[in-house]
């Protein structure tokens, strides 16, 4: 059996030893083009393949004659041409939940950062150190937020990450309401429609599965349902939110603020970057040592071992 690692996925010596016990292993760290993938997949049975760096397209998959399994070192799989994979008899596995704790904690972190204006105060302090004056109306307007305890967290998508957000929110004294596209229940969480969540929540967290059906999941219509004092948190794919509609809502104070881990169409001169009521992070919600150095490689190697041993794990087709 031939196993190809097409891109860096944080495999340590122990992980590589386990893979080498299954067959010949060839490692590449820079597969970015279709041409490179086509060449490197020749004679390969199993490919550990970062679809965000080089998508498993129909063009690539059509050229594979020995490939039996693709293991994605990430959760999302919307970039995989599953129709062609199925036609070629190629199974695809992902790494579900490898960063659920990290991403859920990022939701909570962004919520506090936006609500309490932490980045704004930090920036102002660096420019000209000062002491907060509670009696100063200008400071009240610029820096004050609300108590999180007792407020309502609205979660759109109660999967692995969404349910972890719910657990954390409940732990800090929030009421939690949620919507899931398929029927689901969770202790302490009140389920309701997407529209009701948007209308009732003080903080809205987007945690739905990425895909064509969730593009612009939050548009002008959804934003119009939110409270003027509400905060939107998106640690999912940027394309789930209509950037222009969000900018309009934020700049006109239709909603109070947003915490965004990814933004579609963002350029260095986009006006949303000038807003003080938005906190940005560079799609780093999953970026912890545990996520990438422990959980992810274990899921990847286990998927290969399971497939070879006849007990496949985390298959999506």
Automatic annotation (TrEMBL):
The leader peptide range reads none
Q: Where is the D-isomer specific 2-hydroxyacid dehydrogenase NAD-binding domain?
A: 108-285
InterPro entries in the cross-refs: D-iso_2-hydroxyacid_DH_PdxB, D-isomer_2_OHA_DH_cat_dom, D-isomer_DH_NAD-bd, NAD(P)-bd_dom_sf
Gene Ontology molecular function: any one: NAD binding
Domain D-isomer specific 2-hydroxyacid dehydrogenase catalytic, residue spans: 12-317
- Look up keyword NAD and say if it applies: yes
Gene3D superfamilies cross-referenced by the UniProt entry: NAD(P)-binding Rossmann-like Domain
Listed A to Z, the keywords are: NAD, Oxidoreductase
PANTHER family (alphabetical): D-ISOMER SPECIFIC 2-HYDROXYACID DEHYDROGENASE CATALYTIC DOMAIN-CONTAINING PROTEIN-RELATED (PTHR43761:SF1), D-ISOMER SPECIFIC 2-HYDROXYACID DEHYDROGENASE FAMILY PROTEIN (AFU_ORTHOLOGUE AFUA_1G13630) (PTHR43761)
Query: What family does this belong to?
Result: Belongs to the D-isomer specific 2-hydroxyacid dehydrogenase family.
Protein's name according to its UniProt entry: D-isomer specific 2-hydroxyacid dehydrogenase NAD-binding protein
Source taxonomy: Bacteria, Candidatus Giovannoniibacteriota
